[in-house]
Amino acid sequence: MFKKTVCSVLIFLLDLSGPSDSYGLESIKEDRIELPAPAVLIRSRYSGMEAIAILRSKRIINFILICFMTIMLSCSKEPFTVKGAMEPPEIIQRGTGIIMLPATDEQITLTVFAALDSNHYGVIDDFNENQFFQELEKRTGVHLEFISPPLEKEQEVYNEMIASGDFADIYTHDGNVYPDGWDAAVDDDIYLDLTPYLKTYLKDYNKARLSNPVLEKQTTTAAGRVVCIYVFYTEPQPPWMGLQVRKDWLDDLGLDVPVTFDDWEKMLTLFKTEKKAYAPLSIGQHGFMSISHALSAGFHAMETLMNVDGKVVYGPITDGWKEYLRLLNRWYRNGLIDPDFMINGAWQVDKQMVINGETGAWNAMYTLISEYERAGNGIKVIPVASPVVNRGDKLHIRREDSFIGHPVTISTKCKYPDVAMQIINYLYTEEGALLSNYGIENDTFVYDSNGKPVVTDKIRNNPKYSMPQAQALYLMPPSKFGGLYDWTRELSAVPEKDLVAFEVWGTADDDYILPETLNFAGGEAIERASILSAVTSYMNDCTVRFIVGDMKIERDWDTYVQTIKEMGIDRAIEITQKALDLQNE
Q1: Domain-terminating residue out of 485, 519, 544
Q2: Is 346 in contact with 328 (CB distance < 8 Å)?
Q3: 297 or 72, which is more confident?
Q4: In which domain, by residue range, is 48 found?
Q5: String of b and e for 526-551 (b: at least 16 CB within 10 Å)?
Q6: CB-based contacts of 1: which residues, under 8 Å, 6+ apart?
Q7: Are 173 and 228 in contact (CB under 8 A)?
């Protein structure tokens, strides 16, 4: 009797402490998974980081109470059961028979947070205009309703949704992240812990992640959970972005392919004087080549944290970055860089600048080489390696090989998490992967003589859209909804001569690049993210100012470095080092 009374009191206290985010228990209602309710009250009264901090303190209270209750129950001879607990909901085969959906007579709609990117602009305004998602709905009977902010607003809209408690059912993550990490997102009642469902609703995804020890490790959180469903490449993709130059201009000027920074300076000078290029070199708006890191690589520096022989280093405060800025400032003063680079995109050249002959060197994807050349005007383009200080210098930085893509999560507000998991899992089956990568047979793909699917001219030579745009309209956009991604589908539209880009850009090592899937413990993720957000904003601003001459290397460099240190970069390095060491164990 005493134990029952204690249990009743403890359960009452747990109820008072608010919705639990760490019970690890599920209840079933009307044959459907019912998840613990999010802490809506907290999020309605507080916003952003205040709400997250309060949720974290409530977890501690709940943990203490649960521990005490566990001790008391362990002494009892009576079995303890959870009211309402039962077997997983009944499932039936429907549609193709490959995907199994819960028995239901109602029309199911799931909301999906997925940002539109540059390939979608002018092509679709909503992912429901995409043929892949239309076919997926036919096969599954489930309608997906998309919440699609512009890519540059993704994190802002995401933060507002999380703070308000008005969650989507499914989240795709292309830059938008929960600031305290995946484990905290589960503990804070944001995302569902998917670990219990790996052998049921997510069995095909789990089979894929267990096929490679690296994938298994990188898809498991620091607490040993599986929270995200990641895109897996069917085979690693070599570096797909890097530097390109006008080969026809090199030939006209009698120049060899540039190797050193001195070679580049000579080339850019002639592009300006002889070819009258407005922007001999086009760079990103922050003063560097995002994604490829190609221009600063020769100074052994890049615009973020690096892994230098197992030691985490912040690139923009190294001597290499200092020399990079010194060079870029000279090139800017001499008119060798786009004078308006600050209003460019962050990572890829404006196509019209290439076609109009305004620039002769830039950063872009390998698939665009042939597009530039098809535009006419005698344009010939070649990929080139990152410049180095001295011939023979070894490069350690480039666009890394891709084998894992952006993750997908399922929120605790999802009314049909079993359905959500099964739809995403379908994309890891042979049939689902064929649909997502190639679409519909005899429409967007056919089989070649070897039995391999290849895209048709509807994708490869669409009269209205580029290949990336056609893929955005007819196939599943890469990294937008999980699945197995067969990037080789692009190759049929790329002339064989352009595939040399993989070899040219791949001559560099990528050993200075940190893994994308580092896991951070507890509150360290939010601490690190907060530091890096402030530091990156300051660094971006100062990089531009150093290049245009508003800040001087000789006068302002030491102050710049000291400011970044005072902003906490050493702490961010420490947190990252710990996560890197853990992953390398």
Answers
A1: 485
A2: no
A3: 297
A4: 2-74
A5: bbbbebbeebeeebbebbbbbbbeeb
A6: none
A7: yes
Nearest to 21 by CA among 50, 59, 47: 59
CA angle 61, 67, 70 (to 5 degrees): 140
Distance CA 179, CA 185 (A): 9
Judged by phi (left if over 0) then psi (alpha if -120 to 50, else beta), residue 33 lies in: beta
The amino acid at residue 510 is: D
CATH number at 220 reads 3.40.190.10
- Within this chain, do residues 151 and 211 fall inside the same structural domain, yes or no? yes
Whether 274 and 358 map to the same domain: the answer is: yes
Strand partners, 142: 108
Q: What number of other Cβ atoms are within 10 A of residue 353's Cβ?
A: 18
CB 107 within 8 A of CB 143: yes
d(C-alpha 499, C-alpha 477), whole Å: 22
> What value does the mean pLDDT take over residues 508-527?
87
Alpha helix (H) ranges present in 260-318? 261-273
Under 8 Å between Cβ of 398 and 386: yes
Q: Which of 74, 104, 124 is the last residue of a domain?
A: 74
DSSP class of residue 552? Answer: -
Residue 178 domain flag? yes
**Model confidence at 544: pLDDT above 50:** yes
DSSP 8-state secondary structure symbol assigned to residue 344: S
Calpha distance 190→185 (Å, rounded): 5
- Does some domain include residue 44? yes
Partners of 150 in the beta sheet?
116
Residue that wins the pLDDT comparison between 583 and 556: 556
Only one residue has tokens 């080489």, namely 369
Cβ neighbours of residue 17 under 8 Å, at least 6 residues apart? 58, 61, 62, 65
Instruction: List the beta bridge partners of residue 27.
Output: 34
Closest by Cα among 361, 379, 362 to 370: 379
406 and 389 in one domain? no
Residues 567, 551 within the same domain: yes
**More confident of the two residues 175 and 216:** 216
Say how far apart CA 571 and CA 524 lie, in whole Å: 10
Which residue, among 572, 580, 577, 578, has the nearest Cα to 518 in the 3D structure?
A: 580
Please give the single-letter amino acid code of residue 111. Answer: T
With CA atoms as reference, report the closest residue to 471 among 446, 447, 436.
Answer: 436
Q: What is the pLDDT of residues 238-260, one digit of tens each?
A: 999 999 999 999 999 999 999 99
| Total count of domains within the chain | 3
Whether the CB-CB separation of 133 and 139 falls below 8 Å is answered with no
**Statement: the pTM of the whole predicted model exceeds 0.85:** no
CA dihedral sign of residues 310, 316, 317, 321: positive
Token pair recorded at residue 65: 């109470």
| Whole-number Cα distances in Å, 53 to 56, 163, 333, 410 | 5, 12, 48, 22
Give CA angle at 520 (519, 521), nearest 5°: 125
Same domain, 439 and 348: no
